[in-house]
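Risk register update: the risk that structure generation would not scale has been downgraded. Supporting records follow, first protein first.
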Amino acid sequence: MVIEKKTTIPEAWVKIPSSDDLIGNLPADRTAPVHAYDFGNFFPAMGRLIMAHGRIGAKFSALFSEVMFSPDGTLDRREREMVAAVTAAGQDCHY
């Protein structure tokens, strides 16, 4: 009889900044939304996750902006949002 040893695989963990942490980093003179996904002092979980990675988050945000807002694409904003929503649902993404 062969008994296999179970190996525990460690989970990756990223400390996601709280909304209060992020609010403290905003410019004091900020009065108007900066872009279409600026919800004021509300930071969705995915946005907080991206902001947890300074170097990677900035590049991801630039890529996201290019995909969602580029005037060169043939899809309008609503169609791009639908593609993003269906893709996220297909990957069981809860964000």
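Supporting record for the second protein:
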Amino acid sequence: MISFVNEWKEDGNFRKAIFLFIAVKIILLLVAASSQLIPAEFTQRQERDGNVFINPWAQYDAAAYVDIAMNGYNAAFAEGRGNYGWFPLYPLMIRALGFMGYYFAGFLISNALSLLAVAVMYLVIKKDFTGDVALKAVALMSLFPTSYFFNAVYTESLFLLETAAFFWFSRKGNHFYAGVAGFMAALTRMQGSLLFLPSLYVNAKKGGNVLYSLLIPLGFAAMLAYQYAVTGDAFAQFSTHVGFAREVSLPFMSIYNGVAALISNAQIGDVPGTFYNGFNLFILAFFGWLLVKSYGKIPNEQFIFFAASLLLPLLSSRLEAISRFYLVIFPAFAVMALQQKGEGTAIKIMYAVFIVLMLLFTIRHGNEELPLFG
């Protein structure tokens, strides 16, 4: 808390970063609320919350998190496919504030934690580079096409906070607190367990206690134990993902399937499908390029996390939602900020397109698909 207060007083870039993030957040809130004026027959949105500012953020996976918060893990969700594929920490937080209304609680948690997450992210990047780089990184993340997920009843805000906190504590030599942050991240989403790798590296290199690293897989083990207690199957989440067409596969299969879908969509004149698959492939290639550029420029522990986080979504048979998964790899945005010196013009042109996509994606998300977007 003292660090935040001091930074707020002394660092103009820190204030700019937070104000910029809030400004984008407000714009997206207004865009999403306005999109609810689209007649329901032209959309597939679910009327899950009567508040026009909340309902756009209560679509898609938000229903799973709220169902877990209200009913625990159960097989009835999604026409019998179950809600076991979603991790428990975020729903438990929603349940704790459920007296306020479950969707409102999730909306409040996500928006509050996103501000804290961006603040910690700024401090980590500033510590590694400069305040200018940190400001640019926050700006680039704020304007990324899927940044609207920081408003939604999803885990992006919580997960970004946990990973940024992990690297902040690691940087400060507080390895136990870094392990606790990793433990919580592993209870939030699959990607959280990847923090075990940079944790091992940091503790081995800097003389920390490697036992603290074990807190991270312990978080994943706690999740498995929780699901076993409820279902009798510790790996229920994996069979649930199969029901949602997200089975585990070799990395090249997701790329192959993405290319095949792109070609198939183009041949039949499916413009939304062609764009969607092309966009996913572009994001994969772009972040792959950033990973190459990051070598030797970011701390090794962050490079390890970046590489592992890039690979994990490829173990699914589809590239679906890859731009959301990559949104929370904050070292990628630090690298992007550093690259503005060499490839600044190209990145600015790309981000002009990204900003338009961010607004369109926000409208689409708030309405669970539109004919224009597929």
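The CA atoms of residues 27 and 359 lie 9 Å apart. On this basis the risk owner (M.S.) recommends closing the item.
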